[in-house]
Amino acid sequence: KTREEGYVDKSPTEIARVEYWVDGYQVGGATRADGSNFPTSYRFTVDKPERRGESTEKMVRSFQMGLNLSSAVALLVGVFLVYNTVSVGVLQRRREIGTLRAIGATRLRIRTLFTLEALIYGVFGSAFGIPLGVVIARAAVSVVSNSVSTIYVQINAKDVVMGPQEITVGIILGLLGTAFAALRPATVASSVAPVE
């Protein structure tokens, strides 16, 4: 025989207490928060705590996947912006690149120059982006936790914690993204013919 009780204290129209017994015993009644009973025609479905935990876990995994996808989109936007910036720099400095080639700069040196320039963008972008991301996440956590608490399950998220692992991953992804974004423009820059 099992007996479980649940308490929700929100408004007079919500359940304040549910008691039920299993193994042939009559299911107990539900009481409203104001103390009155629900009509007997009401039907309630009660899940075991394990099932509730499974559904909550599923919901949290889905939510986490959505956040990861959003992060990936933000990273792709950053890669595109770096690509655009380096490409414009190559187009504007074609004459200087040709002059460098004429005085002996190799294709590899030109490619390295533009890749290093992009990595400097990545260092500054990571240095400003990580703290800015923490500030934005802290502002958003209360809104998101209120939504999740209202729609799915009650959560109590108070703050965003950034450990050394998250910071390291952010810096590495920022630098790898900028280096990847600079590959094509740097290759175009290295193919500029020397000025005659």
Shape: rod-shaped
Which spans of ≥5 residues are poorly predicted at pLDDT below 50? 1-12
Distance between the termini: 95 Å
**Strand tally:** 3
The chain-level mean pLDDT equals 76
**N-to-C series of helices and strands:** EEEHHHH
What order do the strands of the largest sheet run in, or round the barrel if closed?
A: 1-2-3
Count of alpha/pi helices: 4
Q: What composes the largest sheet?
A: 3 strands, antiparallel
Helical proportion? 55-70%
Question: What is the C-alpha radius of gyration, as a whole number of Å?
Answer: 29 Å
Structural class: mainly alpha
Percent strand equals 5-15%
Please summarize what this structure is.
The chain is mainly alpha-helical.
Overview of this protein structure:
It is a single chain. This protein is mainly alpha-helical and 196 residues long. It has helices at 49-92, 94-102, 107-151, 164-190, and strands spanning 3-7, 15-21, 30-32. It has a 3-stranded antiparallel β-sheet, with no helix packed on it. A hairpin with a 7-residue loop joins strand 1 (3-7) and strand 2 (15-21). Helix 1 (49-92) runs parallel beside helix 4 (164-190). The longest helix has 45 residues, at 107-151. The protein is rod-shaped, with a radius of gyration of 29 Å.
